[in-house]
Each structure stands twice: as structure tokens, then as C-alpha cells.
Records
---
Amino acid sequence: MKIKSKYQQQGAETLEFALVAIFYFTLLFAVFEFSRALYTWNVLTEATRRGARMAAVCPYGSNIPKQVTIFDSYNGALTTSPIIKDLDIADITIRYIDDAGVDVDVAAGGLESNITFVEVTLTHQHQMLFTGLFSLFVPGWTGTLNSPTFKTTLPAESLGADPTFAPPALDKTCNF
């Protein structure tokens, strides 16, 4: 006759927890990463909107719209965003467009009066935090997501000019 000892099953709960915990924590961290990706998507959408709004009212070629796009102050102290990691001024493009959708280049002889729209475009690569965990399930994955190009187009407004001035005209500024 065999008598079962209560010690034969010792450690079974630990093993079961280890097997279940891998999937539980992977799912938990996947929820965190998905939430971060949605947050980043929303911030980048807002960033292009802010930049286009400033480009519509700031003088042609001003660097202030790019500073505002990366959530910096007007003085241009930063070149990278304090909110989104690796978002740089180099990721931002500002286009000044006429009625036909053609770029207006004032530096090459175009007229500022032909500018009808401003367009701010932003590209960004989202780097995930828990790359090592997810690479267990997707071998060779670097954890980088290429986000779509974010773009906002708005009608050009004053472009820094004050339409209510009395001669002599003041210099175009973006100090509002």
C-alpha cells in the first residue's frame, strides 16, 4: 500500500504561477505599450495643429512654429521635445501653399501675398519601452513603430503682419 505524502506536490503552485505569469505580464505590458502609442498619436496630432496655428500667424520662415510644434516656448531654448522622446525640430516640415496647391518660396522670389495655406507635417518613429519582452514572441523585432505622417493644413492668416497698422508699418513679429 502506497501512502501519498503531502510533500509530493510541493512547488506545483510556483510552477503554475510561472507559466501563467509570463502571459499575464506580457498582456499587462502590451496594454501599457498600446496606451503609450495612443498617447503619442494624440500628442503628435496636437503638435501639428499647434504648429500650423502658429505658422498661420507668424512671419514666413520663422522658426517659432517649429518650436511650438515640439512643445517648446517661443524663445527656442530646446531642439527636442520635452514630451515625446526623440521628437526633434528636424522631424517637422512647414510648407506655405498657394490656391493651386503649389509651394510658395519667398526666398526664391515668390510673393508672400500668394500664400493661402500653411501645412505642418511631422514624422516620428515610436520606440517601445518593453522591447525585450515582446521580442520573445516576435524574434528579431526591434521595437520601433513607424508612425504615419501627421499633417495639418490651415488657411494662412496674418503671417506676422498687423492689418490694422497706421503708417509707418511695424516689423513683422510673432510676439502675441
---
Amino acid sequence: MKHVGVHNDRKVAVMFRQVPNEPDKCLIVYTESLPEDTMKAVNECLATADAQNSTVFADAAYRFKTVTGEGLLNTIHIGNLMNKVPTSEVFLTPNEATRVALSEVNAAMGDTTATSTPTSAPAPTGTPGTLSDEQIATSLRNQAATMQKEADRLLAEAEELHPLPKRGRGRPPKMETAEASSV
């Protein structure tokens, strides 16, 4: 399973494989230390096709809704549950027999940054391991733009397959009855 690993013998989910301007750092959550509802949501999200097809787990977590209807990434961010740690200390464990350093995976993928936020974004401020509101907003805007492009593409494809009838302007004119016209 993608995005899972260990840090100091504790199970983690890797939210962002790299931090902007700090390619040797990543953002993780210690899954077993999360509140029960959040831990369940993280595990459910990890098991989805969306998460397994995402390069960055945070993208899938952003789209995943918790039992309260809030986005999982927002829940984790607001709860101050992400931790910034060196990529060399995180080992991905996609199965029982595999253990690979995240730094090696990032190097093999040729990533200079594996996050949705631009590399020019400022480094996180405040509590270590948290994203700034500006970084979250930038990520949300990038995700919205990507989703908008996909929605436009899907609408164009649907229109090619079966065009909707052309809509006229306003209501059709009322038909006059014979009685009304003879008065």
C-alpha cells in the first residue's frame, strides 16, 4: 500500500513526500497516535483507489470527507497532527517484505518537490510540522484548478457523446386560444 511507512518504529502515513524549499524533509502523521475517528478516516482514505493512484497522499486526503463531512486534510491540519521529519528517517513499507527510505524513493523519482504547492512557497511557520494557511490555500487553489480542467474535459466528452438540446431564450410564447382572439 502506498503512502505508509515507519518513523522511529512508529507507523506513519506520508502526507507530503517533501516540503517546499526543504526537499530533505517530509510531512507525516503518526497513524496510531491519531484520534480514533481521524485514524479510521486516514486508514479508509489510504485504502481508496484515489489515494493509491495519487502521487501525494495529501491530495487524496483533501478530497476525502470525514464522518463530520469535513475534508480529512483540513482535519489533520487544524488538529496540528502533521510532523515534519527528515526523509532519510522515514521508511516506506508498501508490504511486509519491503522497507525503502523515503529519501531514496524521492531521489529515484527525480523529485525536487513532491507537493502540490509551488517551490517558491514560504517554509512552514509556527509549530514545526504544520502548514501555513497560505500553503494550504495555495494547495487548495491548485487542486481546484486541476479539478476544473477535469470537469471541463468531462463535459466536453459528454457533449461529444450525446449533445444536450439547444436551449432557447426564456419561456415559449403563450398560444392564443380562439376565444381570446375573437374578443
